[in-house]
Amino acid sequence: SAAGAGTVSFALSTTRAPTTTRVSASVDPSLAGQPVTFTANVSATAAPASWSGTVTFRDGSTALGAPVAITADGSAVSPPQQLALGDHQITAVFSGDADHDPSTSAVLDQQVRAVPTAVTLSSDLNPSTSGETVAVTATVAAHGATTLRPTGAIQFAIARQPGDAPDPVGGPVALDGDGQASATLPALDDGAYAVTASYSGPATFEPGSGTLVQTVGPDATATALTSSVNPSVVGQPFTLTAIVARTGAGVEPSGSVTFRDGADAPLCAPVPLSAGATADCAVGGELSPVAQHLTAAFLDPDGQYEPSGGSMTQRVAPASTATTLAVVPGSSAFGAPQRLRAEVAVVAPGAGEPAGSVQFAIDGRAVGAPVAVVDGVAESAPIEGLAAGPRQLSAVYADGTVPLVLEPSRATATLVVTPAPTSIEIASSAAVAQAGQPLVFTATAVATTGAPVSDGDVQFLLDGAPLGAPVDVVGGVAVSPTVTGLAPGSHTITAELNGGAEFQPSSVTVTQPVTAAPVEPPLSPAPPLPAPPAPPAPPAPTPPSRPGRSASPRAARLVLATRTARASRAGAVALALRCDGPAGTRCRGRLTLRSGRATVGSVRYALPAGRRATVRIALTRAARRTLAGRGRLTLAVRTVPTAGRGAGGRLTVRAASAR
User: In this model, does residue 526 exceed pLDDT 50?
Assistant: First the structure.
């Protein structure tokens, strides 16, 4: 009716897939003025049919330009950025779309460093004569992929000779558009003067300096210093070459060159100039891993040529290392101790004997404290208690020095720990039993290492038939159910060990002798009395029978209605059972699942004829591991009935995730 009319609203919701965003830089660290692009890669838990949405790149809380549309492969690239000097916290923020949740990347710490500079200093007249006007020009060049040009100023200074305290030449001179600054030196007397140009500029450029020797008088020289390998690594030899040139016309200079390191210690004895006015100094790789300021000083002992010097920066990096990992030969069975051995070597062109330590790990977890490397080798203490199966090993070498001399290195390997071989023994509660005497059998299982078996169960068999359900092993011991009513004779007792994942199965069979119980004669035997004749018995009525039927009542029979089952995530299997038989009969007993000779689960059943039931069987830990690895198991079904007839056959079990 109109009075009952109203509006019904429906809300439809969809579930968007979670996403993960990662951001990376085209170069990190970068230099001031160097263009840098950032790439965002967005992924989802399930492969998307398509992507839409945008990615906003941020430096802290500041957006780096407009949002960038995401491409079909889930990526987005920012426009080139020229970031300011310092550390920048870069993130990529995915907006999400109709099918995907938004997400924000982890912070990328983008470092922007000052641009290295090189200062070269030249003179328009060198050598010069006393009183001549000499102009010096300093040129500052930026090193690295930067678009910036150096700005700032040059402070010129001059000393009477190298090593003297310099005096400033005027005030700072600003660089022009070509990165140059010039100054005129004051009038100079005869001699050699050390002229320096010290560059200082904005924070985006590293300071630097250049030096030349201004010779006033005849036969001035200039020395240049080069290295055969720069940068080098620790232990790598290289050769320094000094080239001494006369600034004016004339014959080649003669004399010797002294090479020194940053601590002003001689690298070689004075080296006489050879043809071409060069001198070489072989350095054996003993320099520490830092930037070394090396110098070459030329000196003519005869005084015919003025001294000169050259310098350079030799960069020495830590040498690379290579680590190999192996298991010390021995048993790989469960319970056997293992030793890990790592060998560390310096990779050419580096050289030296590795020091430091190695941290061993198994399955991602550290094993003890780091082990010192001695003669290139580190070996762990014995490692016990490794679970059976493949174990992932790693060894990480660390130099441990400051500054770092050798680079770290890592090695991995796989150790497959196999189930330990076992042996089992049976002890009877009576070596020789009498008929009807209760008996108990004790099975003792040990591994080859001598330790008791700590997992699994034992199935006892009497004359080949299961003696009850499998019995759990506790402390290496399993005790059978009590056996009564054994007939005189020889009986076989078998114990079958299912050791789980850590222990191999084993079995043993022994013989249990049973003698007849002694019969005591009566105290006073008497002759038997004659029995009266018995009347003839009437014939028993014979019930009518049907073709194919027995005249005796039919026993109940257990029927397994499940041939294929899927295990639950907890490792349980559900089986459907049915009891067929006449009214008043029952199916009762124990149902056991076996894989080969190993029992992997059992359950008791009891149901009247004409009824159905579902039982759940928890698989053993070893069976669950095997099922997880293979995806399916084919098991034998055995029953030990105590009422009715049992069932048998095979059962296929699939893992919870198998298809």
Answer: no
CA dist 91 and 89 (Å) reads: 7
Segment 216-237 shows an average pLDDT of: 86
Preceding peptide of 518 cis, ω within 30°: no
| CB neighbour list of residue 284: distance below 8 Å, 6 or more residues apart | 237
Helix (H) or strand (E) holding 625: helix 621-630
Q: Tell me what the mean pLDDT of segment 591-613 comes to.
A: 88
Q: Are 158 and 118 in contact (CB under 8 A)?
A: no
Token couple for 43: 């992924």
Tokens at residue 218, please? 């005849």
**Which residues neighbour 459 within 8 Å (Cβ) at sequence distance 6 or greater?**
466, 467, 470, 471, 495, 496, 498, 592, 599
d(CA 541, CA 524): 44
Q: How many CB atoms lie within 10 A of CB 51?
A: 20
Residue 361, pLDDT > 90, answer yes
What mean pLDDT comes out for the span 124-151? 86
Among the listed residues 482, 504, 508, 480, the one whose alpha carbon sits nearest the alpha carbon of residue 494: 508
State how far the Cα of 95 lies from the Cα of 437, in Å rounded to an integer. 82
The amino acid occupying position 419 is: P
- 479 contacts 498 by C-beta, under 8 angstroms: no
Burial of 407-423, coded b for 16+ CB within 10 Å and e otherwise, reads bbbbbeeebebebbbbe
Contact 218, 210 (CB under 8 A): no
How high is the pLDDT of residue 534?
Answer: 47
Take residue 361 and report the two structure tokens written for it. 């790990």
Query: Could you give the 3-state DSSP secondary structure of residue 241?
Result: strand
Q: Higher confidence at residue 655 or residue 548?
A: 655
For 549, half-sphere exposure in the C-beta direction (CA atoms, 13 angstrom radius) is 10
Interval 11-16 mean pLDDT: 62
Supply 192's token pair: 């050699």
